[in-house]
Structure formats: structure tokens, C-alpha cells
Amino acid sequence: MTETVAVIEGDGVGREVVPVAVDVLDAVGEFSFVHAEAGDAVAERTGDPLPSATYETVADADATLFGAAGETAADVILPLREAVGSFVNVRPARAYPGVDALRPETDVVFLRENTEGVYSGHEDRLSDDLSTLTRVTTTSASERLAEFAVEFAPEGFHIAHKANVMRETDGRFRDAVQRVADAHDVATEEVLMDAFATRLPLDPASFDVVVCPNLAGDVLSDLAAGLVGGLGLLPSANIGPENALFEPVHGTAPDIAGEGIANPAATVLSAAMLLEHLGYDEDGTRVREAVESVLADGPRTPDLGGDASTGGVGDAILGRL
Ligand code: NAI
Ligand code: MG
């Protein structure tokens, strides 16, 4: 069967790095690519950052590869995560050999709850002086994340939370995740999220897989990006029951967009996660190893201290597949 992969380049460097990842997917597999638009550029033209045709293309595809959207990011990515029914955002942060990383021992995967918490969208301006936000935590979403976590990390994982203060919401989250882990005999260790922010840079090797509520996962994984060499290296996967969307953690990088020097590694590594998600484990490994090999001794983009172009790094990755 030929799977359908929806491709959304979006804005800024998304237009430069996504074509590299599509070439890589094309080189290792047989996919039918369906291109769709989302982001600032299409919003300027049509008034709508996420045309319904794009939403449907993503919902119908077997998987989606997304670059980044600019100012309209929240209007694009939150509905797209919903289009694939995504309940978990998988964010591996790993220091690759040869890359000048602040903490080379870092190799941690964040499993971030992807639908609720303080990103629930329930924000209100009650007066000139007062705004409020409703933090949403359900047992069902926490358990769904935990079911994924016990399969992903049968050897055990950390749960980062702040249940000592947010007893109801993070307490519910922690208890639900813990219950599922116990039922599967999977070991867990709790860590308060603020303490985690200190422990990760001091002792990154003590963490392997970390299960987090939405905001904590967003912030703490960006902290990890800083330890491994920057945003140009971090891929991510938004996994749903039947569908999934893969994207670099970074945004449109307006400071370098259009120069052809964006690092394509994060997006190509996202494509490797896409391959694994569709069951092509060997191809995913091949792609990851090609990226690792180029990072170790191949051409580099300026964010990693080199002077290569996006295309130059892309050609090197293709050449090592
Ligand atoms: P950013 O990730 O775009 O850039 C942060 C820094 O990392 C910049 O210095 C940039 O040059 C660098 N960087 C990012 N990707 C890189 C790559 N592939 N190669 C080399 N260097 C790279 O984050 P920022 O500046 O906070 O946001 C810029 C725009 O992107 C905003 O409009 C924001 O809304 C949007 N954004 C979109 C996201 C999405 O679509 N999922 C996620 C984050 C931001
Ligand atoms: Mg973020």
C-alpha cells in the first residue's frame, strides 16, 4: 500500500527545510505526497491561516509533515493537532556526537500531554484589571498519555508535575499516570517540575523518559534543546489514535529565513519519526543514522558553526542514506 503523506511547508524556514525532508522520504519509501497550505502567507491571501481543505487533507492522510507557521502558529498548529486527534507530543532531545552541546550526556524524551492543561484555550478577560485561565485536567486524557508511556518506556519513566501546589489538576494527572503505570508494572519516579529544571542541566544522564502536562512539556523540552545544541536539532511527533503529525520543534526562524542556511536536521529527524510511526522502522533508523553521520563529520549549517547551506546538508544526508 502507498501511504498518503500530507506536506505543509508553512512559512519562513519551513519552506526551506520541509522540501529536504520530503526528498529524504522519497528516497527511502514510496509515498503519495499531498501538498497543502497553512500559516501567515495563506492567511494574507485568503484571510484564513488554516483553510478547511488543509484540515481535511491532514485528517485524511496517513501522516503529515509540517514545517512551521509564523504569527498564526497557534491558529494553525492547535487545530492541526486536533485534526489528527493527537493526545501526545513526543519530543526527543539528544546530544549528537560531533555537535558542540552544553551537556553532551543529554538523551531524554519528553512525552507531553497535548490537549489540555493551561493550553485549554479557556482564557477570559473579566475586567480591565483581571484575566483568568481555566486549567483543564481530565483522568481520561492523562490515562491515554500514560497508556502510550508504558508502551514507549516499559523500563520506566519520570513524571514531572507540580501536584504539591496544583493538587486538583496535577494531582489528578499524577494519580492517573501512576495508576496506569502500576497496572502495567512499569516503574515511575516523581519529580517536581521546578526541581526538574535544576536537575536536568546538572545531571542530564539521570533522565530518560519524562511524562509531563502540556505547558511543562513545552517549556522543559525547550530547556533540553538548549543543552543539546539548539532548536535546529529537535524533532517532534504529535500522535493520535489513527493519525499523526510530525514537525520540528522550532518555528519559522525569521532572522535567517530566505537565506537558505536553516538546519534541516530537526525536520529530517521528524521524517524519521514519521517512518517509524508508519511501521518502517529500518528506514527510520537509516535516516536517523544518515543525519547522525552528517552531524558527526559532514557539512554544517551556521547554527552549528559551519558555513553549509540547507541544500548542501540535505544532499549530504541523501548521499549517506
Ligand atoms: P524560532 O524557533 O523560529 O527561532 C528561535 C531561534 O532558533 C532563532 O534564532 C532561529 O534562527 C533559530 N532556529 C530555529 N530553527 C532553526 C533551524 N532550522 N536552523 C537554524 N536555526 C534555527 O522561534 P521564535 O523566533 O520564537 O519564533 C519565530 C516565529 O515562529 C514566530 O512567529 C512564532 O509564532 C513561530 N513559531 C511557530 C511554531 C510552529 O509552527 N510550530 C513553533 C514556534 C514558533
Ligand atoms: Mg514551544
From TrEMBL:
One of its GO terms (biological process) is tricarboxylic acid cycle. Residues 4-317 form the Isopropylmalate dehydrogenase-like domain. It comes from the Archaea. One of its GO terms (molecular function) is isocitrate dehydrogenase (NAD+) activity. It holds the Pfam family Iso_dh. Keywords: Oxidoreductase. PANTHER family: DECARBOXYLATING DEHYDROGENASES-ISOCITRATE, ISOPROPYLMALATE, TARTRATE, ISOCITRATE DEHYDROGENASE [NAD] SUBUNIT ALPHA, MITOCHONDRIAL. Belongs to the isocitrate and isopropylmalate dehydrogenases family. This is NAD-dependent isocitrate dehydrogenase. It comes from Halosegnis rubeus.
